[in-house]
Structure formats: structure tokens, C-alpha cells
Write a structure and sequence with these properties.
Blueprint lengths: L16 H8 L7 H13 L3 H22 L4 E5 L9 H8 L4 E6 L2 H5 L1 H4 L7 E6 L5 H6 L1 H6 L7 E5 L11 H10 L6 E7 L6 H12 L12 H7 L4 E2 L5 E2 L20 E7 L2
Parallel strand pairs: 1-2, 1-4, 2-3, 4-5
Antiparallel strand pairs: 5-8, 6-8, 7-8
Helix pairs in contact: 1-2, 3-4
The structure holds S-adenosylmethionine.
């Protein structure tokens, strides 16, 4: 069989989170349906681009914290996205060249970019697997995961801007728990998750009205701080806790940061005891 690298599975007529996110970040790997969906969301929530950029900035800070301060050398990054600046392996290996990273995504367009994600340092390793967060057992059993990561040593499970794509019928708590239960003590979970906690009530009411009128369709579910905390029950939450993404260990002075409502994500790093 010819390996088409997933190209045959790309449906350009339907918006995909990875390509829409790429559009918001100013990338070129997106199609008309992604831009239309991205613009429809930006119309009711213009700060979505700021949200995407702040999410990416958090990813850098979190990997830096893990590699530099927590001594983590293994990363399981689920919901990789289309490669952009400062991918997980680049940040981790710039600090610790022996870092080993497995990327996971279910979007075939990310698969076509996998090569760009596999440019490891000689001392470290990277792998990419085409798999779905909704099937955590398949991720954990995958040969590339088992060959690249040592489950007797701490691993950082990265769930950056992905868990909000799991609606309650996808059993997100059980899914995240399944993955956490596979991690050895001393591992970490890193998560950002969409929220409407910082939105002003007028914007919330407007978005709800647009959804009811059929003019806006959200494929993600915002969750409250308590709902996000429930994913991490029993873990030790690293300071400053479950925080607005712009606030999590951000060296940028408060006066130069965007307002909380312009980056509608919570960010958290938690340690497996
Ligand atoms: C908003 S992007 C975030 C990319 C990257 N983690 C970051 O924060 O910059 C979400 C990514 O999750 C992927 N994704 C969404 N649902 C998924 C699922 N059920 N299984 C695997 N990947 C998924 C999308 O394809 C997309 O690449």
C-alpha cells in the first residue's frame, strides 16, 4: 500500500481545530472552512487570537519549568497541533538535549507535518503517533510510546488546549484519569482548558444567543475552575495553582499583559504524588 501520510483523510470542507488554531496563530496551513469557522468565532470573541498566542506562550513556560526546575526528561504531548515556533521538543531539548517526546494528534494534517516534529537532538528522541485522546488505552499501548518513553521514570503528560474538545459524553474525566493512572510518581500533568469564567456577562449572553440562533457552533466546551480541578483530583497542584493562562508564572509585567478576559483559558501544572 502506498503511504500517503494521511492525506486521503483530510476533509478540507470541514473546519478542524488544528487548522483553525493555525489560522489564529497567523499560520498558512489552513483552508477556507477553517478560516470561516475561525472568523465566525473571532466575530463574537475577537480576543480568540490573543487566547491562542497566550496559550502558546504558556506552553513554552510550562515546558521550561518542567525541564529546568522539575528535571523532567520525558513528555507525552497529546493534541500537538500543526508545528509552529517553540514546539515541545525544541523547548525541552534546548534545556536538556536528552529529552524524549512523543506527540499525539488525530488530525491528518498534523500527521503530514510529523517530520517537522521529529527533528530530535542526537541525545534525545521524538516520535509522532496518529491517535485519538478518546482512546487512551490505544495511546498507552502504542509501540512508539512504549519504545520512546520509559514508564518507570517521570513523564509530563501535556494536555494543552485539547480537553475542552471532549464533551461530557466523551467521558473526559475517565479519559484523563486513565492517562494519569499510567504515570509513575513524580510525573506531571500540564493542562490548559477553555473557560468562560473571565467573560463579562454581556459577552456570555451574546455568545449563548448566537448559538441558540444557529449562527455560531462551538465544537469545544468551556469549563469552570472547579470542573478543571476535578480532572486533577489527588495530584499536587504546582504554584500558582489553577490560574488564568496569562498569570501562570508569567515574567511579563502585569501592566503589559492582556486582560484576563482576552485569554479565556485556565492553565495548570500538577505533580503526581
Ligand atoms: C487548539 S490545538 C492545540 C495545539 C497545541 N497543543 C498547543 O497548545 O499549541 C488542539 C489540537 O488538539 C487536536 N485534537 C483535538 N481533539 C483531539 C482528539 N480527540 N485526539 C487527538 N487530538 C485531538 C487537534 O487536532 C489540534 O491539533
Amino acid at each position: 500500500m502506498t503511504d500517503t501520510g494521511g492525506l486521503e483523510r483530510i476533509d478540507t470542507s470541514v473546519a478542524h481545530p488544528a487548522r483553525r488554531y493555525n489560522y489564529w496563530l497567523g499560520g498558512k496551513d489552513n483552508f477556507a472552512a477553517d478560516r470561516e469557522s475561525g472568523d465566525a468565532i473571532a466575530k463574537v470573541y475577537p480576543a480568540i487570537r490573543t487566547t491562542a498566542l497566550e496559550n502558546r506562550a504558556f506552553l513554552r513556560r510550562a515546558v521550561q519549568y518542567l525541564a529546568e526546575e522539575a528535571g523532567i526528561r520525558q513528555f507525552l504531548d497529546i493534541g500537538t497541533g500543526i508545528p509552529t515556533a517553540d514546539n515541545t521538543h525544541e523547548v525541552a531539548q534546548s534545556i536538556a538535549p536528552d529529552s524524549r517526546i512523543v506527540y499525539v494528534d488525530n488530525d491528518p494534517i498534523v500527521l503530514t507535518h510529523a517530520r517537522a516534529l521529529l527533528s530530535s537532538t542526537p541525545q534525545g528522541a521524538t516520535a509522532y503517533i496518529d491517535a485519538d485522546l478518546r482512546d487512551p488505552a490505544a495511546i498507552l499501548a502504542h509501540d512508539s510510546v512504549r519504545q520512546t518513553l520509559n514508564f518507570d521514570e517521570p513523564i509530563a503528560l501535556m494536555l494543552i488546549a485539547i480537553v475542552h474538545f471532549l464533551f461530557d459524553e466523551h467521558h473526559p474525566r475517565e479519559t484523563v484519569r486513565h492517562l494519569i493512572d499510567a504515570l509513575p510518581p513524580g510525573s506531571y500533568v500540564v493542562m490548559t482548558h477553555g473557560t468562560s469564567d473571565f467573560a463579562d456577562p454581556a459577552l456570555r449572553a451574546h455568545v449563548e444567543a448566537e448559538i441558540r440562533a444557529g449562527r455560531l457552533r462551538l465544537d469545544a466546551v468551556p469549563r469552570s475552575k472547579d470542573e478543571i480541578a476535578a480532572f486533577l483530583e489527588g495530584l499536587d497542584i504546582v504554584e500558582p495553582g489553577i490560574a488564568p493562562v496569562v498569570e501562570w508564572r508569567n515574567p511579563v509585567p502585569e501592566s503589559d499583559r492582556p486582560p484576563l478576559a482576552d485569554a479565556a483559558l485556565y492553565a495548570v501544572v500538577a505533580r503526581v504524588p
